[in-house]
Amino acid sequence: MDHLRSLTRTLDYALDSGEIQNLPASFRTASSSLLRRAGTTMQEIGQTSHTDSGRLDGLIDDATAELDRVEQQERAAAEATPTVHTLQGTLLTDIGRLLAELRSGHKALTS
To answer: Which of 23, 33, 49, 51 is the most exposed place for a label (fewest CB within 10 A)?
Structure first.
């Protein structure tokens, strides 16, 4: 929940300050996709029936691979302003921490 709160605070700030409009459209799309993937993973964990361990591993692996791709893409992109770069980094870090926590929690439950 801490990672979700951090993401929410960052997004609230970005919306309130208007900084979200300065993020490249490709980044907004990619980060939205990452959040949807993380949400799908959390939904898999939160269902009332037994969690399919293989499916959960696959969801986390796919989301992590997408995060790596987005991080690489942003590093290769044209220089952004320091504010945009900080916002992108904060969002990607929070998403990465959320995915790492989901993986860690899943491993703890299956070990």
So the answer is: 49
Residue type, 65: A
Quote the tokens at residue 54: 């293989």
Calculate the CA 93 to chain-centre distance: 8
Residue type, 83: T
| Contact of 72 with 8, CB cutoff 8 Å | no
Q: What ranges make up the beta strands (E) of 2-100?
A: none
**Residue with structure tokens 């926590």?**
101
Alpha-carbon span 12 to 102, nearest angstrom = 23
Which of 9, 10, 59 has its CA nearest to residue 38? 59
Report the distance separating Cα 26 and Cα 84, nearest Å: 13
Query: pTM of the predicted model, to two decimals?
Result: 0.84
Specify the DSSP element, H or E, that contains 79.
none
